[in-house]
Amino acid sequence: MTPAIAAERVERALKFVEGRWKLVILFRLFGGKVRRFSDLEREIPGISQKMLTQQLRQLEKDGIVRRIVHHQVPPKVEYSLTEWGQALCPALDALLKWVDLRERLTEVVV
User: What 3-state DSSP class applies to 69?
Assistant: First the structure.
């Protein structure tokens, strides 16, 4: 793979998770967790209902999140990761380890 192709693929991958809230939402759904909209809203301080709705719709459109509608009164809507969305977990775990390494290295220098 050439550097140009790699850069193009990384850019394509980042488009799926770009935005302030998508990664936070994904972390709340990792591990097979199923969350109602109100649960996500409560667990993510600072996100508005409008923004949460937009981000969930985009993640659903991209095939990362599954929206499950239970037809009952009152209506119940739940969100979970698709198999493809769950496949992001190792990559994001690696990113967390990378950030943790940086913080430990910074502490040693100070």
Answer: strand
Residue 47 is classified by DSSP as -
Max Cα–Cα distance, the chain, nearest Å: 58
Residue at token pair 């909209």: 37
pTM to 2 decimal places = 0.84
Residue 70 to residue 67: CA distance in whole angstroms: 10
CB atoms < 10 A from the CB of 49, how many?
A: 10
Residue type, 106: T
Buried b (16+ CB within 10 A) or exposed e, 67-92: eeeeeeeeeeeebebeeebbebeeee
pLDDT, tens digit (0-9, with 9 covering 90-100), for 41-53? 999 999 999 999 9
Residues 6 or more apart whose CB falls under 8 angstroms from that of 53 comprise 37
